[in-house]
Design a protein that fits this description.
Rossmann fold; DNA-binding; 12 helices; homodimer; 6-stranded mixed sheet; 434 Repressor (Amino-terminal Domain); about 350 residues
DNA sequence: CGTGCATCTGACAACGTTGTCCAGGCTCTA
DNA sequence: TAGAGCCTGGACAACGTTGTCAGATGCACG
């Protein structure tokens, strides 16, 4: 019965099956036992097995025992794909972020996972590598899997492609950066305020020529932090020389060149504000090689920052809290709350460790 | 948090079934269009839609266009659950690791994801939090989802529970630590050799009283690294005083106590070998607060280790390479290779930065 | 001993997709 | 112009599960 004896087809293989299986799914690798098999072995009906597996009431202890034995004997494991198909909920959520290898996203992802776990859901992870097409591809693949919800750290700036999905009931929360051209829940850190405070801190320590090195201008946080920088400078009545400002990719080479460029010339900066953790790490390296001290404040905390000399002063955001907040919001949506989309902004925290308190060298 | 009393304005639907569908799945939230709907709208048969969606041949350009229009108009997206049910392959793999927030696992996870992506598969992630029960729960949940394969960083030491799954065709590769009581592919770093080399390096710089602080003894890498430590000491003819050795959880408190304990007393150690990245970070902090220099070599590289003074000498393992190798091995299994289970051991690399080259203080 | 009721149980039809197979319509040759 | 083949399209059954509903069983009670 396992192999449905098919008539040996003598027809020429003109029929265009691309490259996949020749037969029905039955022929796939390990044939796993199904509820039907369990039912047959236990001598009960299919539905009774289903009841036992799902802990539904209405099964005699004796029957239940027989079914359980059959389950153990056959090594049966419920096929969740079929279950999903029938029930319409997958108990899984998707998380699309930029790069799981970035120390900022690890804790965020873990926090989302914990909340998901508390709600009995699994987490499917994907890295967009900061590529809008890849983001969309990932998100839609997740939707095809019918994840119940999505947490997205957007790479692109147009998320209208998500509209049909959201309309179809996929809960969606954006994190770290707002979505583009659609209205949806979003959880952010206060990039503007954090950067403004960080730069004001440098100004308070006597700096006036302050550099800003940030991420690419299409990234919302980069723009916001730059805005914070400009606000702090304006508040202090300082004119910003545009040679002090550099936005672009955060690879070490680009950042190094940007830093070196604003540290040389006729009016070199005496302090640098680094726009994120990647930038900070590279700037620390550049400054460490300099003969004179240059002040530094970085956005995002980094491990061991306290042990460097001087310690790195940072505007810290809580990645785990971002993830947790977003995930909780997501499950609130899934639990039926129909609040209007909201923008939640988490505060940042200035941690002084020395590098931000250095006086100007000149 | 304040229970934000939201405007109860217009309830979207009174029909909102409290928590459980009273009817068939039809009544679940957003009713998505199916191929049937698309077919009806395009005025073609169901299978024709399927053909278009899957890019199968045998559809007139004109028909294809009509179908495509209907797809776009309805916002149709194929339901992969149904597809999986029919085809038997999910094009997704599971990764169970200890803690995604640990900087060692981020790059590993990312590497696995990249390989999966190259094979058209998605990655489902789970953190075991070093708890064997949770590991098993996660693994079995992934199996119920019918992932095609599993990459597991084991927390437990008995994986016989996986036997039926492997027999049923779930490709499985263990990483970082070998599985317990079953035979399966495993990709490891050379913990023994790496630790031996690191300790030998300290000995070569004149140390004889060397401490070892490692992870819990039920963790394979902890044991292996301790074995490497003992081998190096034995090679040099040094008797190990057991007060120099400490295994246990890697939380900062425990590690700090362990370090302080072996750094005080009548015969304090003059060097420490730290068993992994978590331990290294804490030991660096402890040593930084000491008046006298103590040498340190750590297992695992850590970010900014080069900028500390002294720089931290480490035995580096390549987490991304571990992940990549394991994932490639996994997909080789999935492509039908039926090699015998293999144990792959990747070399480590000693990176000298200063802390391991300090001479004994006494 | 028969009836009523509560409890268990199982047959059946979905869920949305894909593999198989056949029916038409078409082109091309003899 | 008829027959043979090819191309296109669609009907149908299966994948493994769960919701519905009706049948079977047992028990208490009149």
């Amino acid at each position: 019965m396992a192999e449905t004896a098919r008539t040996p087809v003598s027809r020429p293989r003109a029929d265009g099956s691309p490259s996949d299986g020749t037969a029905d799914a039955k022929s796939r690798y390990g044939n796993r036992p199904t509820m039907k098999d369990v039912a047959a072995r236990a001598g009960v009906g299919l539905k009774t097995v289903s009841r036992v597996v799902n802990g539904e009431p209405g099964v005699t202890p004796d029957t239940e025992r027989r079914v359980q034995e059959a389950i153990d004997a056959l090594g049966f494991r419920r096929n969740d794909s079929a279950r999903v198909l029938r029930k319409g909920r997958t108990a899984s959520i998707g998380l699309v972020l930029e790069d799981l290898a970035d120390p900022f996203y690890g804790p965020l992802s873990r926090a989302v996972e914990e909340v998901a776990r508390a709600h009995g859901a699994l987490l499917i992870n994907g890295s967009s590598a900061e590529d809008p097409d890849r983001e969309q591809e990932l998100v839609l693949a997740l939707c095809a899997r019918r994840v119940d919800g999505l947490v997205v750290i957007p790479a692109g700036d147009d998320h209208r492609y998500l509209e049909p999905e959201i309309a179809a009931g996929v809960a969606t929360v954006f994190v770290d950066r707002p979505p583009g051209r659609i209205d949806a829940d979003v959880v952010l850190s206060d990039s503007f305020g954090g950067a403004r405070d960080g730069v004001a801190h440098l100004i308070a320590h006597g700096h006036r020529r302050i550099g800003f090195i940030g991420d690419q201008p299409r990234i919302h946080t980069a723009i916001e932090r730059l805005r914070g920088y400009r606000a702090a400078m304006a508040d202090a009545g300082i004119d910003v020389d545009e040679s002090w400002v550099s936005l672009g990719p955060t690879d070490p080479e680009r950042v190094r060149r940007a830093a070196e460029s604003m540290l040389t010339g006729p009016a070199p900066v005496t302090a640098v504000f680094a726009g994120n953790n990647r930038v900070t790490v590279t700037v620390v390296r550049v400054l460490a090689a300099l003969p004179r001290p240059v002040a530094l404040v970085g956005f995002d905390d980094i491990e061991l920052a306290d042990l460097l000399s001087p310690g790195v002063t940072v505007v810290a955001q809580d990645a785990a809290q971002l993830g947790r907040t977003a995930a909780e919001r997501l499950f609130r949506q899934l639990d039926g709350a129909s609040d209007a989309p909201e923008r939640i902004e988490l505060p940042t925290r200035l941690i002084t460790r020395g590098s931000g308190e250095l006086a100007p060298a000149d």
